[in-house]
Design brief:
single chain; 253 residues; alpha+beta; four-stranded antiparallel sheet; 9 helices; 6 strands; globular
């Protein structure tokens, strides 16, 4: 059902002001807003981390957050928005955030997370547009996905079918879940085609001409292909490889 939202001129002005105050438009008058002013970035110890995110990483490290998942979270932000840099992000994110405030369903912020997804983890739109909030949100999502992957038999060993992965199949699958949805994190079984695997819940059934066997393939990571409206297409394996490449550069924590 479509909702009708009635706004006065003042309502719109207030929303726009709120968005502008929360956005970082590098090179624009409000440049620098990406730095979370509540925390001062540590001078030493996080040289491998983009400057604007050093304070956020330091904050979460001191709270005992897992370093591997924290690195993956930071790498995901790099993959999704280049840490809030670039003309594409500068132009689109304020508009998408405004649309989200008006009730629209769209991904916003450094990690490009939908507000309805963030709410599941106790986070708000405002959090998605702050360095600490975005990093915390993505960490929560990846941690949940990682636990789900473990519950479905994925281990810390290397994925069997991803060329340049993180080296941790459970983490690879958590990253797939971030990109393609947590519903993709399931056990995958052999089929009558040796090259293809399917959800083990379909065992003994014929799916698309394939017979699904009751034989799980441990640490098999599916390669979903996504065709986007803007022509920026990506596969699950390609997404993992992009995140993994960034993750491996974070050697200072």
């Amino acid at each position: 059902m479509r909702r009708t939202i009635i706004l006065t001129e003042q309502d719109l002005i207030n929303i726009v002001k709120k968005v502008i105050n929360e956005q970082s438009v590098i090179g624009a008058p409000n440049s620098g807003a990406i730095v979370n002013t509540k925390f001062k970035a540590p001078i030493k110890g996080y040289e491998c981390v983009p400057y604007a995110f050093r304070a956020a990483v330091d904050n979460l490290k001191k709270k005992g957050y897992n370093s591997l998942i924290l690195k993956a979270s930071l790498a995901t932000i790099g993959r999704e928005s280049s840490f809030g840099s670039g003309n594409r992000y500068d132009f689109l994110n304020p508009l998408k955030t405004l649309w989200a405030y008006l009730g629209g369903s769209t991904s916003v912020g450094y990690g490009q997370v939908k507000p309805e997804t963030a709410k599941q983890y106790g986070m708000e739109i405002e959090d998605l547009n702050s360095t600490l909030g975005a990093l915390t949100t993505i960490y929560k999502i990846l941690s949940s996905n990682y636990q789900k992957a473990k519950e479905n038999g994925f281990t810390n060993a290397k994925s069997k079918n991803v060329t340049n992965s993180t080296g941790n199949a459970a983490l690879d699958m958590a990253i797939v879940g971030y990109n393609a949805g947590a519903s993709k994190i399931v056990k995958y079984c052999h089929t009558s085609d040796p090259k293809l695997k399917r959800d083990c819940k379909l065992a003994y059934k014929n799916v698309g001409g394939l017979k699904v066997l009751n034989k799980p393939e441990i640490n098999y990571v599916p390669n979903f292909k996504n065709k986007r409206w803007d022509g920026v297409n990506i596969s699950s394996h390609g997404y993992i490889e992009e995140v993994a490449k960034r993750l491996k550069t974070y050697t200072c924590f």
